Amino acid sequence: MSHPTTAAVPHHRVVIVGGGQAGLSMSACLSAAGVEHVVFEKHTAMHVWRTQRWDNFCLVTPNWQCALPGHPYAGNDPHGFMKKDEIVAWLDGFRRKVDAPLREGVAVQRVRPRASGGFDVQYAQGGDTLHCTADHVVVASGGYHVPIVPRMAERLPADVLQLHSEQYRNAAALPEGAVLVVGSGQSGAQIAEDLHLAGRRVLLAAGDAPRCARFYRGRDVVDWLADMGYYEMPVEKHPLREGVRDNTNHYVTGRDGGRDIDLRRFAAEGMQLFGAMEGVDGTTLRFKPNVAEVLDRADAVYNSINASIDQYIAREGIDAPPGGRYEPVWAPAEERGQIDLREAGIAAIVWCIGFAPDFGWLDAPVFNGRGQPQHHRGVTALPGLFFLGLPWLHTWGSGRFSGIARDAQHLAGLIAQRPQQAAAGVPAARAAIALA
């Protein structure tokens, strides 16, 4: 008769879930504080940057904002915009420098708080289900997990190729014919531009994304906003408070040295613009007839940001080139609420409407009704559970290369100050039962 093993499961002071820039930043700060930890990564470190970016992807924020812990941008183009391969090389350098206790190919399946304090962690590795315990868990896996593709996609003809933005690589990889891009956030606007510049016929179903200028009054808008203190503003002082976390990012590009993305100019050059896509009836695609309104709102945000820069320049007495308002270069002659995809020659659709969070593996009462974590600067109401790398976790830069270091240092300081529990020493069989 066999008996269950009584070997103690491993215990860690901290388990970090996710081996991207956030997880390795957390590791760097914990190592500096002398706190034992392990990093579990489902795939490979930084895999998103290698596998979920199109070929011509580049940063939309200037290189000088890239500043992970102990690893600032050190190239010769601080006001440029790194391309995909350059980003990957920079991140690889960070990984080597951190030399984290990283375990790749480890998929965390469940995290559950223990009655005595700390957490039980169940994970899969190499086909085995394993367990450990931890005093603290830092969730650094981001908030973009499940690609959003609407159910109406199921009603599209089978011969129309459908991709999510994470699958798009380049224009040549798509079949001949027109391409419909659904969504005009950062990915949608830049993918539409990528296809447009490649000479493809593009139709764009635009959403409510705002836009901003790349350069204004002699400088990158990011430089102006940095001087104005915008990137230091904590979420609780933002006019929208936590509501800012739901905002769609402004579309702009760093491509070819950086420029505006002006959908009106694309339309004047032949791109077809529509309102938000609402439905599919056979080969008929239905759109909200509001493209003029969408463009006007995006331009209003564009002009509002520039006006705030004008006010700052005047208040500080800065000598800068003259500014001005954006004036539309194109306006729709009519609103089209539907088209026939066969008549339009649409051969492919790229869905660029974002991702949904998936924290189903985290069995903890720290989420709101939409499945989003509730926290203050990454600290949840459950002792020992933290989040890192989410948009507006603390400031604008929290979900970007510019703000993760500060957030990680803050959390590492809190963890280092918490009393260390004795290693759990829970028998493996008991741990498996607790997590079942």
Automatic annotation (TrEMBL):
Query: What keywords is this UniProt entry annotated with?
Result: Oxidoreductase
Q: A Gene Ontology MF term for this entry? A: flavin adenine dinucleotide binding
Could you confirm whether the keyword Oxidoreductase appears in this record? Answer: yes
The record's InterPro entries line, in alphabetical order, gives: Auxin_biosynth/cation_transpt, CHP04046_FMN-dependent, FAD/NAD-bd_sf
Q: Please indicate if the UniProt record lists S-adenosyl-L-methionine as a keyword.
A: no
A Pfam family that this protein carries is Pyr_redox_3
Report the coiled-coil segments. Answer: none
Q: Which domain of life is it from?
A: Bacteria
NCBIfam families listed in its UniProt record = MSMEG_0569_nitr
Q: What is the name of the protein in this document?
A: MSMEG_0569 family flavin-dependent oxidoreductase
What does the organism's lineage look like at the top?
Bacteria, Pseudomonadati, Pseudomonadota, Betaproteobacteria, Burkholderiales
